[in-house]
């Protein structure tokens, strides 16, 4: 007869043990501690919802010319200049053709965000593919990384300018002015910004490849494709998410820069960068037309950057839980 | 060390060839036609002659080879001739702009000093501001200064130059009237007053470019200092009674500067790309402005040469960064 195990009083836990957390719960807990990231994420969500659904709330047509109500100042101008021409019908004012600024901001923001997201996804897919292939298959490592180094030493902004200027007419003719330009800009931005992702993913894969679980998977006969899909990709998701935020920020800025230099979308198709560029010649009289789209770009990018900062902290197990 | 440098130099050659090929093919595939502006009354055979006069008649590889020879052999000779008064390049075909029919390099030589002045100054200013910020934020991690520094660098990352530029013009040129909004490149500095004028017109473009440099370099400096501050040798230095200033400014700083110096060298070409926008905003007629003009005028030889020059700068500074790393960190050399 064995005696029942006696509970030793000194070893008893003072506090009941919490049930174990899932990994993503831990990530969320850490992420919540980063105030900037939380604010950035909220702001990004708001601005995304705003540009997606804003036109159902603010139903004014952004292209409608209203020459009687041209050059209306934003409503807040009244605070320091009581004779300014303001109307509640146009809270952010109108431009020199009487188009409503708020409606234009919503539509322009949609274009900017769409370009940012699609270009980021293209860059991520190329970067992840190249990174995983180079990290996993030793034969491909040399050539692929040489290629990455070569592309890294290309002058990106000048090449973007060259590509967009030279191929503009052709694509516009083939696909219509807006779609053609969208595909061109998204394509060139995506194709020229995958290198950092590729490098980070490769280095992660190189380290993961030597771990026991990959060895176990290989020893039971898992094919390389399945190993990559089932075991490698879920483990490199955190660096990919961090570089996704960086990519989104860069893509938005690059699109605005191209629009600013006058090689972006066609004239009647507003984006934030284009609105800013169009307003620069008359900015001494109507500074808000520069400031509003500029603030929109900067705040979006700032929030994306803070989000990335928070994600990096939250996804890094060494920092998490400290 | 010499073999290390030579190996890096040799590696740069295929890189440059690849980049030149990419640029050449990109322009080759582009559908633009230099004859598009010629009136329709000009008969086709004359147009064909004009096309040949522009050097377009020959097959692809021959034109590529000719361009390489002109860029790497004839143009350096011209430069040599100008410096020493020799006549090596006389009678040789140079790269001609379709826009002005004059050699591209002559225009580059006229415009490059403006870019170098503005870009170079802004880079130096940016680095000089960034280093102390980075050092102090790392030394007092999570202090108010560090938090503020993080915020400022985030802003530097996030606000694009085409917004800061007009914003600065609006505040300092239009409202306050302190600085001129347009950069006057014909201005000659010959006495104190003209120097002050030059200084005033440079402040705004330099500040716009420097904001971005500062953001990047100070982040880098901070991270690098943080890596080193927890190392064992720092504890040793403190334990043997060195003054704190000595520990941080000599022991830690020297080791932290290794990656930062390479980052500084690597950042130079990126600044040239970013300078295109700043040059447009402040109407500096540097090479970025020239590139844009050439692009809009479909002047392919100029575009080709300018893009490639920026690429050469990138490769050159990458090389400098590599060699510097080798000089500063003996562990790298023996790889």
Helix content of chain A: 55-70%
Oligomer: heterodimer
Tell the overall outline of chain B: globular
Structural class of chain B: mainly alpha
Instruction: Give the termini separation of chain A.
Output: 47 Å
Instruction: Note the main sheet of chain B.
Output: none
Largest sheet of chain A: none
Question: Could you tell me how far the N terminus lies from the C terminus of chain B, measured between alpha carbons in angstroms?
Answer: 12 Å
CATH topology of one domain in chain B: MetI-like fold
Return Rg of chain B in Å. 24 Å
Work out the radius of gyration of chain A: 26 Å
* Top-tier CATH class of chain A: Mainly Alpha
Can you put this structure into words, describing what you see?
- The complex is a heterodimer of chains A (322) and B (335).
- Chain A has helices at 23-33, 35-57, 101-136, 138-152, 156-175, 177-191, 195-209, 212-219, 224-235, 237-260, 272-279, 288-315.
- With 322 residues, chain A is an all-alpha fold.
- Chain A has a single domain (24-64, 100-315), classed as MetI-like (MetI-like fold, Orthogonal Bundle), CATH 1.10.3720.10.
- The model of chain A has no long low-confidence stretch (mean pLDDT 81).
- Chain B is mostly helical.
- Chain B has a domain at 107-328: MetI-like fold, CATH 1.10.3720.10.
- Helices cover 77% and strands 0% of the residues of chain B.
- Chain B has twelve helices and no strands.
- Chain B has helices at 2-29, 44-53, 60-84, 104-139, 144-158, 161-175, 192-229, 232-239, 244-282, 287-296, 300-328, 330-333.
- Chain B is globular.
- The A-B interface holds A 36, 149-150, 153-159, 161-163, 165-167, 169-170, 249, 253, 256-257, 260-261, 263, 273, 276-277, 280, 283-284, 287, 290-291, 294, 297-299, 301-302, 305-306, 309 and B 15, 18-19, 22-23, 26-27, 30-32, 154-155, 157-160, 162-163, 166-167, 169-170, 174, 269, 272-274, 276-277, 280-281, 291-292, 295-296, 303, 306-307, 310-311, 314-315, 318.
- Chain B: It is a multi-pass membrane protein.
- Chain B: It comes from Shimia thalassica.
- Chain B: It holds the Pfam family BPD_transp_1_N.
């Amino acid at each position: 007869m064995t005696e029942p195990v006696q509970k030793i009083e000194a070893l008893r836990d003072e506090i009941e043990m919490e049930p174990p957390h899932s990994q993503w719960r831990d990530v969320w807990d850490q992420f919540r501690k980063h105030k900037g990231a939380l604010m950035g994420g909220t702001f990004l969500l708001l601005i995304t919802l705003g540009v997606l659904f804003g036109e159902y709330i603010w139903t004014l047509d952004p292209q409608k010319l209203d020459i009687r109500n041209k050059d209306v100042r934003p409503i807040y101008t009244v605070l320091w200049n009581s004779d300014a021409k303001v109307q509640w019908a146009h809270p952010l004012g109108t431009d020199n053709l009487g188009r409503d600024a708020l409606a234009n901001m919503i539509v322009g923001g949609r274009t900017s965000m769409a370009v940012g997201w699609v270009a980021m996804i293209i860059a991520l897919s190329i970067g992840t593919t190249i990174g995983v292939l180079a990290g996993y298959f030793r034969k491909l490592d040399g050539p692929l990384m040489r290629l990455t180094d070569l592309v890294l030493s290309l002058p990106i902004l000048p090449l973007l300018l060259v590509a967009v200027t030279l191929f503009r007419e052709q694509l516009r003719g083939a696909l219509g002015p807006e779609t053609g330009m969208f595909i061109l800009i998204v394509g060139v931005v995506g194709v020229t910004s995958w290198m950092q992702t590729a490098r980070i993913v490769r280095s992660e894969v190189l380290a993961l490849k030597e771990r026991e679980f990959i060895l176990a998977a290989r020893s039971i006969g898992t094919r390389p494709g399945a190993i990559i899909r089932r075991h490698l990709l879920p483990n490199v998701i955190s660096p990919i998410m961090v570089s996704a935020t960086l990519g989104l920020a860069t893509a938005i800025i690059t699109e605005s820069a191209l629009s600013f230099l006058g090689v972006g979308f066609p004239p009647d198709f507003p984006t934030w960068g284009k609105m800013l560029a169009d307003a620069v010649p008359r900015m001494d009289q109507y500074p808000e037309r520069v400031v509003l789209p500029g603030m929109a770009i900067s705040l979006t990018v700032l929030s994306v950057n803070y989000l990335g900062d928070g994600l990096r902290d939250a996804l890094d197990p060494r920092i998490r839980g400290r | 060390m010499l073999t290390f440098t030579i190996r890096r130099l040799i590696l740069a050659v295929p890189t440059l060839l690849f980049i030149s090929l990419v640029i050449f093919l990109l322009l080759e595939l582009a559908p633009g036609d230099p004859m598009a502006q010629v009136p329709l009354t000009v008969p086709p055979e004359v147009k064909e002659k004009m096309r040949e006069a522009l050097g377009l008649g020959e097959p692809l590889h021959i034109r590529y080879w000719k361009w390489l020879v002109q860029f790497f052999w004839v143009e350096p000779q011209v430069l040599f001739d100008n410096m020493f008064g020799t006549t090596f390049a006389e009678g040789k075909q140079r790269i001609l702009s379709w826009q002005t029919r004059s050699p591209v390099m002559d225009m580059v030589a006229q415009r490059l000093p403006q870019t170098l002045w503005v870009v170079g100054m802004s880079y130096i200013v940016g680095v000089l501001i960034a280093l102390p910020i980075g050092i102090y934020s790392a030394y007092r991690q999570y202090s108010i200064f560090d938090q503020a520094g993080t915020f400022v660098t985030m802003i530097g990352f996030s606000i694009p130059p085409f917004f800061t530029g007009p914003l600065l013009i609006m505040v300092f040129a239009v409202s306050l009237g302190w600085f001129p909004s347009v950069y006057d490149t014909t201005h000659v500095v010959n006495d104190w007053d003209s120097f002050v004028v030059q200084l005033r017109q440079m402040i705004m473009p330099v500040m716009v470019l420097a904001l971005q440099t500062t953001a990047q370099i100070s982040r880098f400096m901070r991270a690098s200092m943080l890596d080193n501050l927890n190392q064992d040798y720092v504890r040793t230095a403190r334990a043997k009674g060195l003054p704190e200033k000595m520990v941080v400014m000599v022991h830690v700083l020297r080791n932290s500067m290794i990656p930062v110096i390479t980052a500084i060298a690597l950042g130079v070409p990126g600044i040239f790309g970013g300078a295109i926008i700043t040059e447009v905003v402040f109407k500096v007629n540097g090479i970025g402005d020239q590139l844009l003009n050439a692009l809009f005028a479909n002047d392919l030889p100029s575009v080709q040469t300018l893009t490639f020059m920026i690429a050469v700068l990138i490769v050159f500074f990458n090389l400098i960064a590599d060699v510097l790393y080798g000089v500063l960190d003996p562990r790298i050399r023996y790889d």
